[in-house]
Amino acid sequence: MPELLQFAFSGLTVGAVYALVALGFTLIYNASDVVNFAQGEFVMLGGMATVFLHLAGVPLPMAAALAILITVGVGLALYAFAIDPARGSSAVTIIIITIGASIFLRGVAQVVFDKRFHALPHWFGSDPIRIGGAAILPQSLVVLFGAGLIVALIFLIIDRTLLGRAILATAANRLAARLVGIPVRKIVALSFALSAAIGAVAGILVTPITLTSYDVGTLLALKGFAAAMLGGMGSAVGAVVGGLLLGLAESFGAGLISSKYKDAIAFLIILGVLFVRPQGLFGKRSVERV
Amino acid sequence: MARLLSSRWAIVLGLGLVLAALPFLFPSNYYFRVAAIVNIFALAAVGLNLLMGYAGQVSLGHAGFMGLGAYSVAIGATHFGLHGLAAAGIGAVLSGLVAFLVGRPILRLKGHYLAVATLGFGLLIAMALTNEASWTGGPDGMGVPRLEVFGTRLRGPDTWYYISAGVLLLGVMLALNLIESPTGRAMRAIHDSEIASRVAGIDVASYKLKIFVVSAVYASVAGSLMAFLNGHITPDGTAGFLRSVELVTMVVLGGLGSIIGAIAGAAVLVILPQALTIFHDYEHLMLGLMIMASMILLPRGIVPSLLARLRGGKS
């Protein structure tokens, strides 16, 4: 029993990160139909930039804030220099561009930073808290709480502000949104900035537990994408639920079946979902018009 | 029809002449090696182009089949004592079979979903190759015994250049024939509109599956050739995600639906990084930039863009 609780804890912690990556995916996907494979690099940049700024003597909170700003800058640059010039290209072309961007960002990180693993100090010490025979790191609670806060914030923005309405309108119908005077390109740029910020925060929160290096982004992006699909592409609630479920499935799968194939479990689930219910848990069924 | 035929043979003849003439320009074995790698990737790209450019289906996991082909050769020879050619044949059949089994459910998906499903599939193969270390040597890879035919050991990049060139020519010839066959016409119809072709009585699912299997066999043969040429293979080097991305980039960069384009795309993506090896640390950076730049600046691909320019100049 304590093992199962332990698996649940670690699954939720990892799942919270997947949820944030998936949420970032969903924001960009809704605003622009772009599937952004560079989403994982935002997480990497957030963690790595904080580590190196901190090493350079910047106090940790300041380093984290700067890292988020840098990542937002990268997100905006990605939109301005790679996505916007390719407007109107096919979905596959855009996917390849974002994959290219992710390889590029990894290459830059490898040159600017280095190729080693790095950690950040735990925020509230690394003595585990014991609950029902299982141990949970205080940092895991930070990750869960932080992720919850971000999700709540995003939902508030989307639901309660004029900006959120503009994002929703852009997601629903870009042409109609432009016709009623919404600056669609600015909204799309904003979605890139927002999703970069979310990724960076996820990276900063989780680096004390999982460590970070220049190449952690790829797998995170794939799993975030998988989580978004599990929840249903375009659904923000789905992204969060999908992320948590994926984290849990991985953790239980690794614990009970095989840790070697931990990463495979995620993809087997995704393939299964795609075949049984391609629209995901919360997605709407798509109908093709001739 | 006569003109079509002649243009088809013109392509094969032209390519054959180029492949035969190139060695006269090679100052060293190193050039043979790079050219052989180009041939091998071109073969895989030609196969993938059938799937992407003609049937309109993307696969982000095609390197998985290259991995199957490469490891069939290595495992067949070291663990079962099979002859290299037999092992390569088994690899091709195995890849076709795997493609046949996973193809039906996967190819029902579209767009992003198809992309992520194929990507996941490729990743699973790479993961299995990495994890089953007792068979595959794990992440460090395994050696491949030299191929022996009629008592001669086939080694040396020049030998493998000629072999890979021959296989590439054969692959191009088969692909061109396939495109001009009724299957090819059905494929292009599917590319333009699945629903319209279904209404016209084309069995969409079975044609897509057929092409998927064919393209998997191309990739598998390319993988086997790669294993023979290098003498040592790793999961990442043959079946990794980056390889799959490179293959797709070759096809799109060269031009969807252009056989010569696939070869040109392979040449660019193999040769450019070789030319840039001085910037070793900047390898990923350069590759990423290249992929982005080619997609943004030449979204229709090198060969179709050039052809359009030539035609524009005439009129």
Question: What distinguishing features does this structure have?
Answer:
heterodimer, A: 290 residues, ABC transporter involved in vitamin B12 uptake, BtuC, 73% helix, 2% strand, B: 315 residues, mainly alpha, two-stranded antiparallel ribbon, globular
Number of strands of chain B: 4
The CATH topology of chain A: ABC transporter involved in vitamin B12 uptake, BtuC
Strand order of the largest sheet of chain A: 1-2
Backbone shape of chain B? globular
Assembly state: heterodimer
| Uncertain ranges of chain B | none
How do the strands and helices of this protein lay out in sequence?
The complex is a heterodimer of chains A (290) and B (315).
Chain A lengths: L1 H31 L6 H17 L4 H24 L7 H22 L16 E3 L2 E3 L1 H23 L1 H11 L1 H6 L4 H27 L6 H15 L4 H21 L5 H15 L14
Antiparallel strand pairs in A: 1-2
Chain B lengths: L1 H20 L7 H26 L8 H18 L3 H23 L4 H21 L1 H4 L5 E2 L3 E3 L2 E3 L2 H24 L1 H11 L1 H6 L4 H27 L1 E2 L1 H5 L1 H14 L4 H17 L7 H15 L4 H13 L1
What does this structure look like?
The complex is a heterodimer of chains A (290) and B (315). Chain A is an all-alpha fold. Helices cover 73% and strands 2% of the residues of chain A. Chain A has a two-stranded antiparallel sheet. In chain A, strand 1 (129-131) and strand 2 (134-136) form a beta hairpin. In chain A, helix 5 runs antiparallel to helix 8 and helix 6 (162-172) packs across helix 8. Chain A is globular. The termini of chain A are far apart. In chain B, the strands form two sheets. Chain B has a two-stranded antiparallel sheet with strand order 1-4. A two-stranded antiparallel sheet of chain B has the order 2-3. The model of chain B has no long low-confidence stretch (mean pLDDT 87). Chain B has helices at 2-21, 29-54, 63-80, 84-106, 111-131, 133-136, 157-180, 182-192, 194-199, 204-230, 235-239, 241-254, 259-275, 283-297, 302-314; strands spanning 142-143, 147-149, 152-154, 232-233. In chain B, helix 2 packs across helix 13, helix 3 crosses helix 10 (204-230) and helix 8 packs across helix 10 (204-230). Chain B has 315 residues and is mainly alpha-helical. Chain B is built from 15 helices and four strands. Chain B has a single domain (29-310), classed as ABC transporter involved in vitamin B12 uptake, BtuC, CATH 1.10.3470.
